[in-house]
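Hi F.,

I've been meaning to write this up properly since the lab meeting, where we talked about keeping a consistent format for the predictions we share between groups. The idea is simple: the sequence comes first, exactly as it goes in, then the structure tokens exactly as they come out, then a line or two of notes. No screenshots and no reformatting. I'm using this chain as the first example so we have something concrete to point to.
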Amino acid sequence: MSAILAADIGATNSRFALFYAKAEARGAVSLTLKREIWLPGKEYASFPQILRVLLDPRAVEGQRPFLRPGEADSAILALAGPIAGDSCRLSNLPWLIRAQDVRDLLGIASISLINDFAAQGYACLIPEINDPAVIQEGAPSPDHPAAVIGAGTGLGKALLLPPRPPAGHGARGLTPCVALRTAPPPAPRGAGALPPCGGPPAARPPERLPAASAPADGDTRLLPAPLLARAAGSRILPSEGGHAEFPFLGGEEEDFAAFVRRETGCPRLINDLIVSGPGLGHLHAFLTGVRLPDAEASENALRRPEVLNWFARFYARACRNFVLETLALRGLFITGGMALRLPVLSHPAFLPEFWHSAAHRNILEQIPIRHLQDPRSGLRGAALCGVLREKPEGNAGDLLEGASPPQTPPAGA
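Output, unedited:
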């Protein structure tokens, strides 16, 4: 049995879960969620500080730590930002996350850093246990990519590429669960400074210790051998498409864009500022004249039809553009907190906007659209990545070949 610490680290919440992976009969693997904890990231000054909370004797119901040093065999950290080697600077939170800090503080030798939407991509590979809702039935084309998109504090994107061809048939594909390597991003501009274009301020230490939830034993999902084989052969391409500019159409939308520019001081309006929780806050302020915190604006949007209409239209536009840019004929998976909190995907404005294309409406009407409704999808996707990297005992080993090796400390370290 292998213990996997999965983490889904975004700008709003830092979610951690401990999973046990166990080899079962006929090549299957059972994945059991033993316990989890969700912590508000903005209340913490740094990622090491939040790691220390996991070890605090009061972390779970004030009585015991969430994790003990060395308890997990491996860690898979899904991070909302581009991965640069063994570190990541989050896009919308002033944290530098390093594998070495996890190794030092939690006593875990095998650590993998992946993009948060790579983890969502892995969750999309297991629809049999995620039970996604059908938004549009469609007709998938298995030889094409599938798009993954989700609005929360920002807008995340990833692409599921078709399985790699057999050896000797075409170019070698991306290795499953491989880190996206980019040039290191610039260092933050100082404590308390705002990231570019109106991002969140630097975090502050917490005043209290949040409680952890501890699900009862039995939250177990069986991963059959064919599913694992399919996942091991899949390729996931992360994206920073949330930082691409959002397109506005018509006079009213241009007025809204001008409003957001004045509010944020950002001359170029990216997806993160529009198709997101902050974007909904801007819409609410523009359409109602009342500025509310983002969470309250989401709640109030249910009582303001014009706000929900605009947001559904913007969300659909972002989805349509991503599908057309990537020719994602295999399907579109939608995840993220905004679609969980608001009925944007079932809104009457969503599908007509998604279909809106002078040349390719017939293609868009045939795209399968699925909504991942499990708020733990990122954690489950990270755990699946861990299963593919870590070889559980027993007869599942043949399914794990080809996964890129996790980062481990050099000999003698």
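Notes:
Residues 242-371 form a domain with the Hexokinase; domain 1 fold (CATH 3.40.367.20).
The mean pLDDT is 84.

If this format works for you, I'll send the rest the same way.

G.
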